[in-house]
Amino acid sequence: MTTYRVAGKGRVDTGQPVTFTFDGKRFEGCAGDTVASALLANGVHLMGRSFKYHRPRGPVTAGSEEPNALIGTRRGAGQFEPNTRATVQEIWDGLETTSQNKFPNLKFDIGAINDFAYMLFSAGFYYKTFMWPKNFWHKVYEPFIRKAAGLGVSPTEEDPDTYASRNLHCDVLIVGAGPTGLAAARAAAVGGVNVVLIDENVECGGTLLSKPNAEINGMPSWDWLAAELVSLRSLGVKIMTRTTAIGYYHQNMIGMVEKLTDHLSDLPKDTPRERMWHVRAKQVILAQGALEKPLVFHGNDRPGVMLAGSAQTYLNRYGVLVGKRPVIITSHDSAWDAAFDLADAGADVRAIVDTRETVDEELQSQARMRGIGMKLSHTVTATSGRLRVSSIRVNPIDDGKAGDGLIIPCDALLMSGGWTPSLHLFSHTKGSLTWNEDQTTFLPKDTPEDCTIAGASRGLWGIENVLIDGASAGVKVAMALGKESQTRQHKVTHDRIGSGVSQIELPTDKSSGKAKAFVDFQNDVTAKDLRLAVREGMRSIEHVKRYTTNGMATDQGKMSNINGLNIAADALNKPQPQVGLTTFRPPYTPTTFGAFAGYHRGDHFEITRKTQIDSWAQENGAVFEPVGQWRRARYFPKRGEDMDTAVGRECRTTRAHVGIFDASTLGKIEVVGPDAVEFMNRMYTNPWTKLAAGRCRYGLLLGDDGFIRDDGVIGRMSQDCFHVTTTTGGAARVMNMMEDYLQTEWPDLDVWLTSTTENWSTIALNGPKAAKLLAPLVDGVELTEDAFPHMSCAECTVAGMPARLFRVSFTGEIGFEINVPAPMGRKLWETLWQAGQEHGITAYGTETMHVLRAEKGYIIVGQDTDGTVTPYDAGMGWAVAKTKKDFVGMRGLMRPDLVASNRRHLVGLLTEDGTKLEEGAQIVFDPHQAIPMTMVGHVTSSYHSDAMGRPIALALVECGQNRMGETVYIPMPDRTIAAKITSTVFFDPSNSRVKIPSGEML
Amino acid sequence: MLLINCPYCEETLPEAEFVYAGEAHVLRAETPSELSDQDWAEFLFIRQNVKGVHFERWRHFHGCARFFNAARDTVSDKFLITYKAGEPRPNLTELAGDAT
Ligand SMILES: [Zn+2]
């Protein structure tokens, strides 16, 4: 059934058949085929539907720039990938492929009705069509857009494949292994530098693979290629195929994706599907070649209409005739060459239609020799055929206008509008471009990187020319690296260089409003859309692009950018450089998420920090919550308890007996040195000079702007050593801030800072029985109110372990924080847990910690403050030293807006009806005012308090401290809640409970 | 990804080891409380945001942990020089001469 395969042509292995399916139907191809070449060999051009109009489409190219033939590929569960270009996907036995954007099937598609609603979908339709009426949004427009948006279907199962990433350092990276890259690699490698040569294709050779007739230095091009690859390898050149340079980043860093298994029927064990390479090259040579430009005419998107150069590739590389009766439409010589190759392979070339009046006599005589009819100074004005082109309409051009049409039957239409240099990676380097009027295209100019662009990428045509240019690029980079090299002679025969003219839309006799002449095939943008965008006021190509979506699809405008620019420039009547070229951005071709993610997935996506006590919490049924990177026990439910019940019990037990809490995640910084106290004085708001060794103080850290940044209890272990604690989330930030001031503002201070967060396990014991529980285990300190009062610290042993013991309380109860060397944490926890049984001990988590501290009005930085709260706003003016010469934030606190009279203060809120408020809810003074209301603050913390038997809340309220007892209102969607402003301290305002009763026998 | 030379380690290393730390040579006064509101606001909030050579601070966070200064061209993203904290701002015209 392979009726379009040409015996003796191509590089595929016809002796090795490969079976795959397309939309459920079985097809046979050969080893070496792509999905597109195999389907074309079977006479199938229709491979997909377009995105917007669901028009039938076939492949227009033979490479990675393909806009139309996008398919889904599937290997097994989770191994589905949408938007694969059929023109690059190699076939293997068992490959399942499906077409896209079709319903119910590819040959009959209901969405194609969009095609008849063409007028609705013209330029800017995203902005215009869905504007009115407003209430259509939810019911009509949004569901429609959601259904229509996006190409292909996302996979729904987890991807079982693995993706790797690697680094590579080399002297020279050469992107593109066509004749330019090969010659460059040779010249550089001969000079003795280390060369990496990559190509996105299955094999090296580039254009040589499509030009077997050329002879290089007396050898047929394919023989020359094979010999050249052998000698490059022997020179030590690392050659990587199926490898795409996706982006060119700063200082010659190139991202490359190597596809390792997508072409294999049987997956090798332990091989990643793709590998992301981070390459740092001393010199880069870009040899990406050029892309052929489509012509813009009515019906240029019909299956069977294809680039002439691509048809030549299908013939010479894959041994496939894309049509047996093709017609050529061109404005460039290169398509004539393609016509001759197809004719010589047995195709009945019906005509060469050329828009030019005069064409090289040599080409004309070759056409005559083959009996091919020529129509110079002619245009194509229409194509017909339901799912594939069956005829075209050809008209003479007279004075720029199309005359009477003539129908020519055909089964393929091969077009060429000339060639566009590939400048994608060059543009990633911030390389500047210059407009070349002769070639009607942009050419590369300067780049800030150590980068050389060579061959067709810089507008040179013909194999001989690019071989010479590639070789001199190789010599140039070798010399830049301090090596000597020489170019070799390159003599190429049967090298058809050719020239052409650039076209905007082809002349037509069809009314321009009705012509569907596509510029961007993937996004269904027509020449009419571009002209409409200009009429509607778009002046820059960046605006035209966004208004029409020209060049915004997954092919990044590889085919459409220059045609789009030429048409926009024509409509604006301005030269192209004044209209501008849109920016090329990475990645060069669509790249899988897997390649970017690499190893960073699942458990390796982000680290989870666990304390030494985490395992105990896990074994004892804790429910966890993430706090920064830490995993912390939130509460410890007993059988049948929900969170509220568990937290209520934990609170109650702690206030009645004793609770144990894992505080190991608290940030800890050791501040040591002769100037430690001076450093503390400058960093924190509080005075530190008079704090005696063995005492602690609550420390408040501001930014120089005067706002609260962090807080924590700080113990002076000795004259020159402070044990600083920070919030869990703020530890790294505080350390960075301290280092910043120490290194850059006060380098004269003799102080050392050490992060000790992970050196200590920290266990908090709180409750009336905390001292009673702990005392028998402690050696070196007597746990009485007199010997070890609230806010004391000491080095001692606890249960035989060396410890730093703090008498502090974040609950309002008698409290201790015991720091032991981290690995001993779980042992100490179990010892305390055991000893606590007779005291009715409970373990509690972060939720109970939050409730207990809120009952006492202790703030959580970052919850009750938001980076705009001063110590005075928070009611903590007492923590600010009054007599220091300076501290971080002191000057900031004097800023006019920080001493203004309308600041928001932290206050307590008690709802009148006992409702628990929502954290973040906005507060107003007058609930009856007109909407939008004036908001005067928000709720920062809200809990049910077991101790108070009611909900409590903390809030920032404008002038709140002057409004004690007043009522404020919290408007919610269903009702407005009234609440009274109170002190932030709800429980035990006299702090009587932190004292160890003097009569208590220990 | 940039390559950055740490003037303390005297090695050129990938950007991933470093963190940016804002404009350089923004001096904090010895006694800020003596500054006017205007001068203090300038110190806190006003930055150059230059297009061209920018003096800025970096920290070799995952290395020696030192803060240092750099002159970087914000157009080309090229580092002209890096130097230790506390050293004077290098002469711009000399740098431009070196760069060409
Ligand atoms: Zn360093």
Automatic annotation (TrEMBL), chain A:
Keywords on record: Oxidoreductase
Domain FAD/NAD(P)-binding: 171-437
Domain Aminomethyltransferase C-terminal: 904-988
Entry GO MF terms: sarcosine oxidase activity
Iron keyword on record: no
Gene Ontology biological process terms in this record: tetrahydrofolate metabolic process
Sequence ranges assigned to domain GCVT N-terminal in this UniProt record: 615-884
Domain SoxA A3 as annotated: residue spans: 515-598
One Pfam family per UniProt: Pyr_redox_2
InterPro entries, alphabetized: 2Fe-2S-bd_N, BFD-like_2Fe2S-bd_dom_sf, FAD/NAD-bd_sf, FAD/NAD-binding_dom, GcvT/YgfZ/DmdA, GcvT/YgfZ_C, GcvT_C, GCVT_N
Transmembrane segments: none
Family as reported in the entry's similarity comment: Belongs to the GcvT family.
Record NCBIfam families: soxA
Name by which UniProt lists this protein: Sarcosine oxidase subunit alpha
TrEMBL record, chain B:
Superkingdom to which the source organism belongs: Bacteria
InterPro entries found in the cross-reference section: SoxD, SoxD_sf
Protein known as: Sarcosine oxidase subunit delta
GO molecular function term, any single one: sarcosine oxidase activity
One BP term from GO: tetrahydrofolate metabolic process
Pfam families: SoxD
Upper lineage: Bacteria, Pseudomonadati, Pseudomonadota, Alphaproteobacteria, Rhodobacterales
Organism: Pacificibacter maritimus
